[in-house]
Amino acid sequence: MSVRIKDYQLPYNSHKLYDVFLNETEIETLVTRDPAMICSWIDSTESSNQSRLHRLIVGIDIEWRPNFNPGAGQNPVATLQLCVGKSCLIYQIIHAPNIPRKLRNFLNNDDYRFVGVGIENDVKKLLNDWGIGVSNTVDLREWAMEELENDNLRSYGLKGLVKEILGIEIYKPKRVTMSDWDDRWLSIDQVCYACLDAYLSFEVGRILSSWYN
């Protein structure tokens, strides 16, 4: 697996724009805490997928800063990642001045299918930390298990599912997994990691959806 990134080096405090490349696939990635940019991304995504809005697949994931104190609870969700097609949003919710209504409506659209691994726990944490609900969720492990008739897939992580479904070996470095996701400026490694988690969730869901149909 080859991963590289192009930083557009925009001169704004509100958002950053990148192209993340997975092998030859280019994923446009917006990193922002600005509610207006969130709304713009949603508008663009829905406009670009008009013919699929009744069955839209959305890859979803979250990250938060790990707490290394055994007696302390988890830190709140720092980033919410969404991906549709080759367009990814990394929403730095922990630094956002407010959560736009358009995002809440997007996440609660019953026509959209939000897919991820361990998504039930992610959605529960998102609700507990920020009061954001996600209505129509599908755990990719359960979906893959049904489609492939393989009960072993129930215990797979995203890495295993990606290898099984997409035939791609991915590397998830622990130093990035356990990094400070609540930093105001995410590192290049964090952007790649967060983007690919959401994008690969989308891709697995897209393939499973095509099999299902």
Automatic annotation (TrEMBL):
GO biological process: nucleobase-containing compound metabolic process
UniProt key word Hydrolase: yes
UniProt keyword annotation of Zinc present: no
Domain of life (superkingdom): Eukaryota
Assigned GO CC terms: cytoplasm; nucleus
Molecular function in Gene Ontology: 3'-5' exonuclease activity; nucleic acid binding
Database matches in SUPFAM superfamilies: Ribonuclease H-like
Pfam family, one: DNA_pol_A_exo1
Residue ranges of domain 3'-5' exonuclease in the record: 35-213
Keywords linked to the UniProt accession: Hydrolase, Nuclease
PANTHER family attached to this UniProt entry: 3-5 EXONUCLEASE, WERNER SYNDROME-LIKE EXONUCLEASE
Protein's recorded name: 3-5 exonuclease
Source organism of this protein record: Solanum tuberosum (Potato)
